[in-house]
């Protein structure tokens, strides 16, 4: 029975809700009470990073400081007191580690979410927006200044920066913690990174995955070494320059100028990219030590990709896919000229790249049991910002050389990593399809400490030195920045006594552990990488994929992709289809995992 | 008395609301029913722009077409049927002309809005978001392709484009309407634009306003004539490059490298920028016909600004303001180095530029009686996109040479426009302060047809020719794009019989009237410009100002501007203060209007 009391109760209820809303409003809009904190430090107190929750530290010559907590959702002298709404939000938000374990476990709810479109959309919206919120957009920092500059935004030759550099005048390279001099890089590599014995990835990851990672990411990781490690030649995101080239000059050189297609040549009845001699004017921009022969070196969107067979394979596949898409478009639009076919195919390829990266690549990488979907429309109308800049820390994080094994078995031949450097010959010795099958059946290494092959040590060494040149903060500062708990000691970080001892020897203080070192030495997680790598790399990755212009409301429609058929190619793309459509002899069972039963 | 019926009625009410929500949901999420339309046209049917409400037209060789209505809020073969939510939204939205008349009238409600912060914030939020929604962000088009390309976004040397170019293969330059050949530019200029007799602006606008417009906008209107009228050398927005220079090289050349300041010299006891001889390495990038003398030409953020006294005056004032702000910052932060003082002062200057542009300049330009406020925090957390690109149509729209009078009276001297070209000597003959007072007391011209002075005709001519080269659509297409009713005939456009007759002679068809021609020949509105100029320029302008990175949540806080004092300089900036702080002899009564009683 419904009674008057019930109704009176409802009115009371409404009144309470209104009162709460009023309180929340006032809590949420009051200005943050900045207070000067005086210290006895004999250094700039901001070097100790006293401000939590992304509060910005400003210090004064008398060794006092202020935390600017504006728009952080926190207040108090060190931005540690959650405002009411922030408190509610944080109370509802699960602990990142628990959430990660849940997302990677076989929970019955994921079956429901994966099969009910409405719930799946909600899950993707949550993922896209919560990850996107963790990335400054517009970008605020670059590597030449430890404070916000207008240049960080307007000078796009800078890589962005998530945390500004440690100021030069701080007592130690990490701020105030740790030794005055960081450990010798070579000793660090020897004790922490170098592979003793190849450790395969426990998730059956194969080399098709490893090379996908490399091929995909080097469209936007393009350090400009002429200018310095803080600068990039890239354009800030998924621009498909790994297929087409990063300059208009380069793009023109590899176009066929007919039917929208890329140049190709036929070798043994199969389509391959042209040689450099057939692409006049192509500027390779490779370091002088890279051997280039115009008669036998292939001309690709990314010249470096002609130096490694795995990267070459993907370049061939994407070139074929582009030309295949051009044929579909020409069939649909026989009146379109070369220019329109080319540009529209490029939009479709960009869509395919994003779709495959999210649904095949990140799905495998994360080992999430929630099915990831490329559904940009779920965030239309939200606060998500459709613009991206690459952060230099993302480039460093993505140094995934431990994935690279010591060698690869193709049919009955065995090639070491160095056997395959600077030459794509093995692809032609065995044939493209056989080489792809070999990439699929060779195991990639585990992304962990002590699994870095000798051959790629120079890249690791250079990157570690660069991170010191541009003064990265330590791993714990990055963990705080991305809402993860900080490590309390070396065992807490590694879960491995020997490794913990080595790191203790090298750094002395957990707060001094460098960014990349902390990422790679963290204890295992259910994903291919340790937890921080997922939860720090994830936001940059999601932002880079979903902030692409094609995902925005005015672009995400059939006409952008030449009509329904083009749009459907994007929306149904998969690694499987990409290979099936572009391998001569079939693609059965090829995925990012070695076939069942592989040793 | 509350009865059970009332409660039952409430349940019914809730049920009805739920049902309506469900219907809306289904209406809003169904995919748009694209239908192929067959035509008998002997041309590409998309040349007739059949798709309304920003639907995208795709045609097929059999002369059929499809309108892609995705994400427009409309459906139907030509995207003319409003979805339910769109219909509700449109029903609530006032007609733009009526709204404009209301905004510019002395209505009692504006007094309330102006004086109640909560309502004022709501008004500004509405203005920022509704204007921002009208600009594609990310930008979709450039001038070399009549369809969406990835390059429009990633190649930032392109100006953006709001409506794509008329395809080359269309029957007439405007699509299907009008003559095969557009009217001769010189005849057009003579009959429509050329000043018969100087018409002063009826809102008492002075030359301080005119030069502000020019000085402010040329930080982002920087056509790259070496590459073509579709390319820019600018960085996409309010980057303060008009004060500091657009390249790092340029910026370095005019820095003092001490206390964050810009270089200066003292002339007659006042601070002025240095001469070119004192800025080694400065690249002027001026056309060869511009006379530059290293010993007497001033070195400014924008070299061209040393050629006209009005632009020079603003350059001097902003240089002084920058150096003044550096002193305030140094007083607050005596430990900061030159670099940090410079970059932080630049952030403050950028904030001042935006504040003064919105609250003084746009306020006067629009003649709105609602007080415009620079409150970026009102849109934090909304769908507003904090990234901007300059559209080439905005550059064309801003050709406001009718503001320029035939000459200017300074004290007892009279200078024609040509007397003052390429020389800033008059500033020194009379003194800076006197020259500023002269700018304030000379009337600017009315922004209308038949008020374009002879001296600046070459700029108009070049711009009109450029708009044909890059194939602008006609004014009515732009009016549709921005939600304005289209003109039905020439009298409807001009409200002036003679002008209507001339335009009829020249174009024959109202649909063939060019963009800029239509903007300038429209009948008067209560603003300084006709209605379309406000309602088309407004969105680009608001977007450019509010999408600046400093307005975004992570930037808009005291620490970005060096602390509370810096933030306060931004938040209290005004034209009045800018002048008072940087003129030697006081600034009383100087505004964007001539003093009361001026003839």
TrEMBL record, chains A, B:
Pfam family, one: An_peroxidase
Positions with a binding annotation for substrate: 131
Main location: endoplasmic reticulum
Pathway(s) this gene product operates in, as recorded in its UniProt entry: Lipid metabolism; prostaglandin biosynthesis
Transmembrane segments: none
Domain named EGF-like: residues: 42-80
Catalytic-site annotation from UniProt: 218 (proton acceptor), 398 (for cyclooxygenase activity)
GO MF annotation terms: heme binding; metal ion binding; oxidoreductase activity, acting on single donors with incorporation of molecular oxygen, incorporation of two atoms of oxygen; peroxidase activity; prostaglandin-endoperoxide synthase activity
Cellular localisation: Endoplasmic reticulum membrane; Microsome membrane
Signal peptide stretch: 1-29
BP GO terms, sorted: cyclooxygenase pathway; response to oxidative stress
Catalyzed reactions per annotation: (9Z,12Z)-octadecadienoate + AH2 + O2 = (9R)-hydroxy-(10E,12Z)-octadecadienoate + A + H2O; (9Z,12Z)-octadecadienoate + AH2 + O2 = (13S)-hydroxy-(9Z,11E)-octadecadienoate + A + H2O; (9Z,12Z)-octadecadienoate + AH2 + O2 = (13R)-hydroxy-(9Z,11E)-octadecadienoate + A + H2O; (9Z,12Z)-octadecadienoate + AH2 + O2 = (9S)-hydroxy-(10E,12Z)-octadecadienoate + A + H2O
The protein's required cofactors: heme b
Enzyme Commission number(s): 1.14.99.1
Statement: the UniProt record of this protein carries the keyword RNA-binding: no
Keywords, sorted A to Z: Dioxygenase, EGF-like domain, Endoplasmic reticulum, Fatty acid biosynthesis, Fatty acid metabolism, Heme, Iron, Lipid biosynthesis, Lipid metabolism, Metal-binding, Microsome, Oxidoreductase, Peroxidase, Prostaglandin biosynthesis, Prostaglandin metabolism, Signal
Positions of heme b binding: 401
Gene Ontology terms: cellular component: endoplasmic reticulum membrane; neuron projection
InterPro entries: EGF, Haem_peroxidase_animal, Haem_peroxidase_sf, Haem_peroxidase_sf_animal, Oxylipin_biosynth_metab
Quaternary structure and interacting proteins, as annotated: Homodimer.
Record-stated family: Belongs to the prostaglandin G/H synthase family.
Protein name (record): prostaglandin-endoperoxide synthase
Lineage, broadest ranks: Eukaryota, Metazoa, Ecdysozoa, Arthropoda, Crustacea
């Amino acid at each position: 029975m419904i009674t008057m009391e019930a109704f009176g109760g409802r009115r009371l209820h409404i009144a309470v809700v209104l009162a709460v809303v009023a309180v929340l409003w006032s809590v949420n809009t009051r200005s943050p009470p900045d207070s000067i904190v005086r210290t006895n430090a004999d250094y700039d107190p901001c070097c100790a990073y006293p401000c939590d929750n992304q509060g910005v530290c400003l210090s004064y010559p008398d060794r006092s400081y202020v935390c600017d907590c504006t728009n952080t959702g926190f207040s108090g002298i060190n931005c540690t007191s959650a405002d009411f709404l922030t408190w509610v939000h944080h109370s509802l938000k699960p602990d990142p580690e628990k959430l990660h374990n849940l997302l990677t476990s076989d929970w019955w709810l994921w079956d429901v979410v994966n099969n009910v479109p409405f719930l799946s959309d909600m899950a993707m919206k949550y993922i896209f927006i919560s990850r996107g919120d963790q990335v400054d957009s517009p970008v605020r920092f670059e590597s030449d200044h430890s404070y916000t500059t207008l240049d960080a935004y307007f000078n796009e030759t800078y890589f962005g920066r998530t945390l500004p550099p440690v100021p030069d005048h701080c007592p130690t390279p990490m701020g105030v913690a740790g030794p005055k001099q960081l450990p010798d890089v070579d000793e660090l590599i020897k004790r922490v990174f170098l592979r003793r014995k190849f450790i395969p990835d426990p998730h059956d990851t194969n080399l098709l995955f490893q090379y996908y990672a490399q091929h995909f990411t080097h469209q936007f990781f393009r350090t400009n070494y002429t200018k310095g490690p803080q600068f990039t030649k890239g354009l800030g995101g998924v621009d498909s320059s790994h297929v087409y080239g990063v300059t208009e000059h380069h793009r023109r050189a590899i176009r066929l100028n007919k039917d929208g297609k890329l140049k190709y040549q036929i070798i043994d009845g199969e389509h391959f990219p042209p040689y450099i001699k057939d692409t006049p004017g192509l500027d390779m921009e490779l370091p002088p030590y890279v051997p280039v022969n115009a008669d036998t070196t292939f001309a690709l969107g990314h010249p470096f990709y002609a130096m490694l067979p795995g990267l070459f394979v993907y370049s061939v596949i994407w070139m074929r896919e582009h030309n295949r898409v051009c044929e579909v478009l020409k069939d649909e639009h026989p009146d379109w000229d070369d220019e329109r076919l080319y540009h529209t195919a490029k939009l479709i390829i960009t869509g395919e790249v994003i779709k495959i990266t999210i649904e095949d690549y990140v799905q495998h990488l994360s080992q999430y049991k929630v099915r990831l979907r490329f559904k940009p429309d779920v965030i239309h109308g939200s606060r998500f910002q459709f613009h991206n800049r690459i952060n230099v820390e993302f480039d460093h994080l993505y140094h995934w050389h431990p994935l690279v094994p010591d060698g690869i078995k193709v049919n009955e031949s065995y090639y070491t990593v160095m056997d395959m450097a600077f030459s794509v010959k093995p692809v032609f010795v065995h044939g493209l399809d056989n080489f792809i099958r070999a990439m699929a059946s060779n195991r990639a290494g585990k992304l962990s400490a002590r699994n870095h092959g000798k051959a790629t040590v120079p890249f690791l060494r250079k990157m570690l030195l660069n991170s010191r040149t541009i003064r990265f903060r330590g791993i714990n500062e990055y963990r705080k920045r991305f809402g993860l708990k900080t490590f309390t000691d070396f065992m807490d970080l590694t879960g491995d006594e020997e490794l913990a001892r080595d790191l203790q020897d090298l750094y002395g203080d957990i707060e001094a552990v460098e960014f990349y070192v902390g990422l790679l030495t963290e204890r295992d997680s259910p994903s291919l990488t340790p937890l921080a790598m997922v939860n720090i790399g994830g936001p940059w990755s999601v932002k880079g994929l979903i902030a692409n212009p094609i995902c925005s409301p005015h672009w995400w429609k059939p006409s952008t992709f030449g009509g329904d058929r083009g749009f459907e190619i994007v929306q149904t793309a998969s690694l499987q289809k990409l290979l099936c459509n572009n391998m001569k002899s079939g693609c059965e069972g090829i995925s990012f995992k070695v076939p069942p039963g592989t040793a």
